[in-house]
Amino acid sequence: MDASIEELAALVGGRVIGGPSATHITGAAAIADAQEGDITFFGNAKYLPALRASRATCALVPDGFDEAIPAVQIQVANPTLAFSKILEQLAPPPIVFAPGIHPSAVIAADARIGKDVAIQAHVVVEPGAVIGDRTVLGPNVYIGHGTRVGDDCKIYASASIRERCRIGNRVIIHSGAVLGSDGFGFEMANGRYVKIPQTGIVQIDDDVEIGANTTIDRARFGRTWIGEGSKIDNLVQIAHNVVIGKHSIIVSQVGISGSSRIGNYATLAGQVGVVGHIEIGDQAVVAAKSGVSKSIPAKQMWWGSPAGPIQEQKEQHARLNRLAKLMERVKRLEEQVAAKGTK
Amino acid sequence: MDASIEELAALVGGRVIGGPSATHITGAAAIADAQEGDITFFGNAKYLPALRASRATCALVPDGFDEAIPAVQIQVANPTLAFSKILEQLAPPPIVFAPGIHPSAVIAADARIGKDVAIQAHVVVEPGAVIGDRTVLGPNVYIGHGTRVGDDCKIYASASIRERCRIGNRVIIHSGAVLGSDGFGFEMANGRYVKIPQTGIVQIDDDVEIGANTTIDRARFGRTWIGEGSKIDNLVQIAHNVVIGKHSIIVSQVGISGSSRIGNYATLAGQVGVVGHIEIGDQAVVAAKSGVSKSIPAKQMWWGSPAGPIQEQKEQHARLNRLAKLMERVKRLEEQVAAKGTK
Amino acid sequence: MDASIEELAALVGGRVIGGPSATHITGAAAIADAQEGDITFFGNAKYLPALRASRATCALVPDGFDEAIPAVQIQVANPTLAFSKILEQLAPPPIVFAPGIHPSAVIAADARIGKDVAIQAHVVVEPGAVIGDRTVLGPNVYIGHGTRVGDDCKIYASASIRERCRIGNRVIIHSGAVLGSDGFGFEMANGRYVKIPQTGIVQIDDDVEIGANTTIDRARFGRTWIGEGSKIDNLVQIAHNVVIGKHSIIVSQVGISGSSRIGNYATLAGQVGVVGHIEIGDQAVVAAKSGVSKSIPAKQMWWGSPAGPIQEQKEQHARLNRLAKLMERVKRLEEQVAAKGTK
C-alpha cells in the first residue's frame, strides 16, 4: 500500500482535515496497533481515548467529528465502510501461482491433471489421483493414491491428503492440514491393542475451507464427510465417520469424536469438545470451551462442561455467585433457631 | 467394493429378502450415512426408525426380521459380525509401497538402510540414521542425525523426527507428527528468557501408533518415552521427559506437561490436560476434558477440572443440580422462622 | 556421553563412595527413569525411596549422605548443580548444519540469501524473499513471496511461512509450525459464508521461539505480532490480529482469538482459551485450562472457566467443597423448625 492521504480521501469521497494531505500512507491497522505511516478508522465511540493515543498518521472519522486527535483526519459518512474500501483497493496483490508443473514434482504417470493447474516444487501426486482444472498444489503437498481434487482448489504448502479421498471444487486447505489419516480405533485382545482397519475415506464438499494443521481422519468404513460451504479453523480434530453438514463453522482447537453428526448452519466455538455418536442440530451454537456429552436440538445454544442450554447454565452460574450469601443466611438461621430453642 | 447382493449373502451365509439379488453394492456405511449403492447393518433395535428412513440399497438384518424397510434385506444370525466380514473381504486393497529409494530422496552416505525399505519422494535421512527392514518412509519425511527407526514401521507423509531418537519396530507415525522437537524450557535472566538446552531424546517402543500432527518433545536430558503398544491420537502434546507406560491410550488433543508419568493400560480421554511432575497409575482412566493437577492412583477413574474421583464428582454434580431447590428451602425456613419470631 | 565415574567426580569436585570408580557412565536421567549406565542426582529428600529403587549406576548425593543405595555415589556440596555441570559438559554435540544450499532446494532467482546460510534439501524460497546471515532452513521448509527472515534463525523441517511475513533475528521455529495462514473470517451473504480477504501479515520479533505445529494466522489487515523474546510452545493457535508483547510465555495448546492483546512478561498456561478483542495485562498469569472471557488487569493471576481472580476462585471452590455439609445443615434446620411448629 502506498498512497497519499489526498488520494485516499478521493477514493472514499471524504474531506481531509488537520494536516498535510500529501503525506504518504503505507499501511492500515486498528487504532491500537497503528504505527507511523498507517491509516486507521474510528467506528465506535468507546475507542476515542485509544484514538487520541494512537500513533496512526491518518484516521477515518465521521462527518462533523470535532475532537482534537494527533492523526490527520479524513471525514466520511461511514468510516468503517470507507476503511474496507481502502483495504480492498490498496491491499497487496494476491500471490498468483502460474499454471505449470514444477520439474521437482513427482506425478504418477496415470494421474489425471486438469487444465491450467499449478503444481509447485516437491509435490507428490500418487497413481490414480485426479486434479481438477485451475487447482493450485503448494510446495511439498501430498496427494494420495486415487484421491480426487476438484476444480479451483487451493492446497497450501505441506498439506497431506491420503488415498482415495474426494475433495470438491473451490476447496481451500491450509498448510499442514492432514486429511485421510487412519481413524483411532483399536480392539483389546490378549492384553494388547489391535488396530481396526480404517478403510473408508474423507469427503470434502464444494466451498469448504480447512485450517492449518487441522486433522480429519478417514472413516472406519464409508466416509468422514464435511458438507458444502462449511468452514473449519486451525488445529481442529475431526475423528472418523464424523459428518458435518452444510455452512457450519468449526472454530480453532475443537475436537469432534467418532461418528458424531453436526447439522447445517451450526457453530462450534473454540476449544469445544464433542463426544462420539451424538447429534448437534441445525443452527445450534456451542459456546467456547464447552464439553458436549449429549445431543443438542436444532437452534439451541449450549454452554458449559458438561454443556447444557445456555439459559439454564447462566441461571446456575448466578446461583453459584450467591453461594457465599446463602451460607451466611443458613448460619443466621441456625443462630436464630438455637436462640429460640433456649428460650 | 463391488459385489452383488447375492454374492454378499453367500459370503456371510445369509438369505436375501425383498429385492433383486443381482443389484450391485459399491459401498458400506452406517444406517444414517448410507447412500444408494451402500450396504448397511441393523445391530441395535433403537435404530429401527433410522433403518426405515435409510437410503441404503441393502441391509444386514437378524434372522426372522419382519419389518418393512426400503432396503433389500440379507437376513443373518449376527448382522454386526456379518458386516465386519463384508468390510474385511471387500475393503479396498491397502496401498502398498514397493521397496526402493526414490531418486529425489536425499540419504546420507553413512545412513544404514535395511532390506526392502520403501523410501518415497523427497525424504531426507541424515548422517548416522538407521532405517530397519521393510520400513516405509512416506513423501517429505525427515529422519534426523543418528535417529534409529526399527523394522516394519510406517511413517506417513511429512512426519519429522529429529536427531538421535529411537523408534522401535512396527511403529506407525501419521502425517505431520513431530518427534524430538526441543522441550519448552527457559530460565529468566536479566529480564529475558534464556533457552535451557534440551539434550535428551525421544524413545518410542514397539507397536506404538502416533496420530497426525501430534508433537512429542525431546527430553531435557535422558528421554521422553512412549512404552510398548501405547496408542496416541491426533494433535496430542507430550512434553519433555514425560513417560507413558505400555498399552495406554491417549485420545486426541490431550496435553501432558513435563516429567509426568502415565502408567500401563491407562486411558486419557480427549482434551485432557495433565500438569507436570505427577503420576497417573496403571489402568487409571481420566474422562474427557478433565484437568489433572495431582497424581491419580492405579485403577481409579477421575473426572473434572480440577479432576477428582468420578464418584465424588458425580455426587457433587448432583448437589449442584439441587442448588435451586436448596435456595428455595432456605427462603421458606427464613419465612417460617420470621413468622414464629413475630408470634 | 561416555566418561568414567572417576572422571565425572573430578569434573564436579566430588568424592566417589561405594563402588568401582572406573565404571563407565553413558547417560544421565532422573532417578525414576535412570537405567544401567546412567548417572542421576539426589536433590530432594522425598525422592529417597525412589533413589533406593533406582537402576542408576551412579548417583550424585550431598556431602555426608549416609544411606545405603545400589548406585555408586559421588558426594558433592550441591548435587543438582553438579548434575547440570555434567550435562553441560557431556551433552552430545549439537547438530551443525554446514553453510550451503542443497541442490534440491528451489530458490527464486531474485530471493536475497545472506552469508553462511544453510538451506537444506527440498526447501522452497519464493520470489522476493530475504534470508539473513547464518540462518538455517531445515528440509522441506517453505518461505513465501516477499517474506523476510532475519539473521541467525533456525527454522526446522517442514515449517511453512507464507507471503510477506517478517521474522526477526535469532528466531527459532520448530517443525510443522505454520505462519501466515489466512485468518478465520467470513461474512454470511445469501445463506453462504463469503471469505473476508486476509491481507495483513505476521511479524515475529527478535529472539522469539515458536513450537512444533503451532499456527499463527496472518492479519485481516495490519499484522499479527509476536513481541521480542516471547516463547510459544507446541500446538498453540494465534488468530488474526493478535498482539503478544515482549517476553511472554504461551504454553502448549493455548488458543488466542482474533484481535486480543497479551502484554509483556505475561504467562498463559497450557490449554488456556482467550476470546477475541480483550486485553491481558503485563505480568498477568492465567492458570492452565482457564477460559478467559474478559480483560485481565496487569499483574493479576486468574483461573477458571470463565476465569476470574484466583483468590476469589479458590474461595468459591472452598465453598463448593462445603456444599454437602450445607445441605445437611439445612435439613437439620427444617427438622428443628418443623418440630417447634408441632409443639
* Rg calc of chain A: 28 Å
Largest sheet of chain A: 12 strands, mixed
Biggest interface, chains and residue tallies: A-B, 62 and 60 residues
The oligomerization state is: homotrimer
Characterization of this structure:
- The structure is a homotrimer of 343-residue chains.
- By secondary structure, chain A is α/β, with parallel strands linked by helices.
- Chain A has three domains: 3-90, MurE/MurF, N-terminal domain (Udp-n-acetylmuramoylalanyl-d-glutamate--2,6- Diaminopimelate Ligase, Chain: A, domain 1), CATH 3.40.1390.10; 100-310, Hexapeptide repeat proteins (UDP N-Acetylglucosamine Acyltransferase, domain 1); 313-342.
- In chain A, a hairpin with a 2-residue loop joins β22 and β23 (192-195).
- Chain A is flat, with a radius of gyration of 28 Å.
- Chains in contact: A-B, A-C, B-C.
- At the A-C interface, β4 and α5 of A face β23, α4 and α5 of C.
